[in-house]
Amino acid sequence: MKLFKDRKEFRRCNRRVGWAEAFYRYPYCCQYYSSVEVNPYHWMMHEATHQLNSEVAHLSLPKWLDEGFACYIATSRVVGKSLHLGEIDVDTYPVWWLGDIAIAGDFDKDKENLSIIPLRAIISGQGGPGMNKYFNLYYLHWWSLAHFLLHYEQGKYITGLNLLIADGGKISSFEKNIGEIEIIERQWYEYVNELKRKY
Prior knowledge:
The protein is built from nine helices and five strands, in the order βαββααββαααααα.
């Protein structure tokens, strides 16, 4: 890890990071600590998850799974010195943008207004709207889909998720190990709306 004193030093030493608070580039996680943030470490946890997935677990994950797991870890609450996986911290990215997903509360309308990206596009990485314009929405999809697969109906899909990871995370593997995408998409959509009601 390369830990910088503050955002100013981080940006001075890493001029091409844009808005990023941290990044992982083998073999380092580069980040800074900010004492003025409510949660000053969630972006560190995100990048460290990428690092552990790559260097320790030696996983080669498609973007939706790689970012989904990193977001899942980074949005989990830290209580005292313990990480409470899956307990959502509202002061983390992308949770603070939760209002931007499923804005109509109606599945068909939300697909039309592009506040829902079809899961087939999310999983395949093809056919969705432009990433530059819908950046936060993609992260909301990746995070919420990971959370769904780990927690829906007391972990109904965890076994299938493990097989999906081992199998490379592609569409065919998703449908073989989790279920038909259009059916899962409806379940996930209801799950997202339940998260919005809670948070």
